[in-house]
Automatic annotation (TrEMBL):
GO biological process: nucleosome assembly
InterPro entries linked: NAP-like_sf, NAP_family
Chain positions covered by the region annotation Disordered: 1-23
Protein's UniProt name: PAP_RNA-bind domain-containing protein
Domain of life of the organism encoding this protein: Eukaryota
Gene Ontology cellular component terms for the protein in this record: nucleus
SUPFAM superfamilies on file: NAP-like (SSF143113)
Family named by the database record: Belongs to the nucleosome assembly protein (NAP) family.
Length: 265
């Protein structure tokens, strides 16, 4: 009886009920953890399947690109041979492009008179790596017969190789082809064609290369026969080194001053 009384002290009252509640709580937590583990496992399996499907999709897309690139190669070769008959074709087509045309200086436009062919070749093993080649006739600017920009976008880190340009005497001093200061005349920011050609700092973000690959390669005759399109929101201004970015066009609305009536005396 004394033992029972000792167990019935205020300090010991309710202890068995608390342990039962804790055990029930532990069972609930264990069950919750078990359900989360199953969900985490199923989630991981689903994500692995998605990653595998994406990998298969890339391989299939790359296979389709390789298939059609082989077909395009002969067609591009035939088209380039026919375009060599047209005088100043590439000069006119590139000058009319709404983005590439903005980086051309007067010296660049004169240089493209001697460009006989523009080629964009994708690698057979990896279609994401490509080359842009410019074939040149004899010209007063360069001694090179072919200049090339080679992009390796799947490498780690990504890099870009440029042909070693052999300028003729006093050309760089006269025209300053390699000036890389940003220009307000261009939407991209390059000051000239050669400034873009020799810039290999950001190969993946090279917008000019993108337009050469997907616009000038696929349908250059469209830009040859169409005048350049003026992009809205920007205007061309002379280069100002304090503000070398495109200036948005703002419409100025002139407010007429309201003339009040003169009071009579």
């Amino acid at each position: 009886m004394e033992a029972d009384k000792m167990d019935a002290t205020p300090e010991n009252i309710g202890q068995p009920n608390r342990t039962r509640r804790k055990r029930k709580q532990y069972k609930g937590v264990v069950a919750l953890l078990a359900s989360n583990r199953r969900a985490a496992y199923e989630l991981e399996m689903a994500q692995n399947q998605i990653d595998q499907d994406r990998k298969n999709m890339r391989e299939e897309v790359a296979g389709v690109h390789r298939k059609y690139n082989m077909q395009f190669k002969s067609l591009f070769e035939r088209r380039n041979t026919l375009l060599e008959i047209v005088p100043n074709f590439w000069r006119t087509a590139i000058k009319h492009h709404p983005i590439i045309g903005t980086i051309l200086t007067e010296a660049d436009k004169d240089f493209f008179r001697y460009v006989t062919r523009v080629e964009v070749d994708s690698r057979e093993d990896n279609v994401f790596n490509f080359k842009i080649r410019f074939h040149l006739d004899y010209n007063p600017y360069l001694e090179n017969k072919v200049i090339m920009k080679d992009f390796h976008l799947t490498a780690c880190p990504q890099f870009c190789r440029v042909t070693n340009l052999k300028f003729r005497k006093n050309i760089l001093e006269t025209y300053k082809f390699l000036d890389r200061k940003r220009s307000s005349r261009s939407y991209i920011g390059y000051k000239s064609f050669f400034a873009w050609l020799t810039d290999n700092s950001t190969p993946r973000r090279d917008d000019i290369a993108h337009y050469f690959r997907f616009d000038m390669q696929m349908n250059p005759m469209f830009y040859y026969s169409h005048k350049p399109i003026k992009l809205p929101g920007f205007t061309k201004k002379k280069c100002n080194h304090k503000n070398d970015f495109p200036v948005p066009v703002k419409k100025v609305v002139k407010m007429r001053k309201k003339r009040g009536r003169r009071g009579r005396k």
